[in-house]
Amino acid sequence: MLQLRVPVYFLTGFFLIALTLGSLPRIASAEEQATVTSGPMPGHSAMRAVNIWMQGSTASDALLEFWPKGKTGQKRSTKSQTLVATDQYTTHFHIGDLEPGTTYEYRVLMNGKPVSLPDTLEFHTQPLWQWRTGPPPFRVVAGSCAYINDPAYDRPGKPYGAGYDIFGRMAGQKPDMMLWLGDNVYLREADYGSRWGMAERYRHDRAVSELQSLLRSTHHYAIWDDHDYGPNDSNQSFNLKDESLALFKRYWANPAYGLPGTDGIFVKFTFRDIDFFLLDNRYYRDDDHAPDTATKTMLGQDQLAWLKNALLDSKAPFKIIANGSQMLNELSKKEGWNHFPDERTAFVDWLNETNIPGVMFMSGDVHYSALLKLDRTNRYPIYELTCSPLTSGPRTKKLAPGESLLVPGTFVGERNFCQLDFSGPRKNRNLKITVLNADGEVKWTKDIAAKELR
């Protein structure tokens, strides 16, 4: 009897573990070499440290060997990380003791053996330019709404996702940074009812082959929106929001997530001389259709207090506030800050009172790209750059200028991405916005000088 009970107990435990993972756990055979299924993906870059994310195929020990570009004699290695089924074989390498402004090459070793990958692997530390030179130019690419088809669980009919080659086009722009603006994963009806389903959707979408060159080519930062948080238009009531937060932390490599005692994904970071404020528009969100009262909130009191203090503390020429939902579109029937009128008005009034220079918004969600402009009396205008969609179905019906504060000629109703080029001397920085479609064709450009936002 004991000989029967042991394997039954083992298999039962094995599959109970699987229920929490996102894919069935695997054990590599003696002949099978563990490999990388997604990434490696450089995340947050500081002057003397970086975060790098990676996902493997099976249980294994992994490490990175790295060296300043062209100087293999200075090769070092990270500590070995054990990839385990309970984390879907993902890991984060936190590498310190680096030199500012340096390009490092690196390679992956799994179970002591080098892993062959088609891309040259590099990461970059941020330069120490302060008090030494002017701020360097840099390029950001951005987008939202990346739908990866999975026919067994998609809605019937024409596939909703298409044009995965856009990821390669973005990598080809040689960006210094990629900003994911939400709906980076699309949880389906079959997914968001269980921890297992949500984790499996993250694993499935991150592994798509066309995405890998972009993941490896630059440093990535992300926020979420409804589809990578929970159900469509979901709010703070989502029962599995803590699991969703755990998955976001598992699959992204941001510098931080929320504050001690205040959960969420919001964070501020500086890239070169520009400050980015990444907002969490889901974890504390009241439903858009709730009565319009003074306490109705999209961001929550604690996050709003953090944002205001972070903006007051910033000396950056551009202060980019990124949010999953649109912030300025006043008449949209879709999700947006216009459905939280008291909170939105109070924040704009606060911006008017403090007259903080350089504030701009970025957003995704709505399946078109556009530049919105809010004119203010005796104050500089506030712009919002909406970037959407990457691979989801686009909205082709154009907006009327009066409907949305639309800057004429900036509506793009096809799959696209945004590019932000920052350049110029410290006291006269310039932002050039370029929107490109999935084929790499330029749809429109606009220059905004920092001095216009003072």
Key attributes of the depicted protein:
454 residues; alpha+beta; Immunoglobulin-like; 2 domains; six-stranded mixed beta sheet; globular; disordered N terminus
Number of strands: 21
- The level 1 CATH classification of the largest domain is Alpha Beta
Q: At CATH's second level, what is the architecture of the largest domain?
A: 4-Layer Sandwich
Q: Which sequence of SSEs, written as H and E, runs from N to C?
A: HEEEEEEEEEEHEHHEHEEHEHEEEHEEE
Count of spatially separate domains: 2
Fourth-level CATH superfamily of the largest domain:
Alkaline phosphatase D (PhoD)
The assigned structural class equals: alpha+beta
Helix content: 10-25%
What distance separates the N and C termini? 80 Å
Whole-angstrom Rg: 22 Å
Strand content: 25-35%
Instruction: Provide mean pLDDT, rounded.
Output: 93
User: What name does the CATH topology of the largest domain carry?
Assistant: Purple Acid Phosphatase, chain A, domain 2
Low-confidence stretches: 1-28
Write down the overall geometry.
Answer: globular
Alpha plus pi helix count: 8
The largest sheet, given as strand count, sense and whether it forms a barrel, is: 6 strands, antiparallel
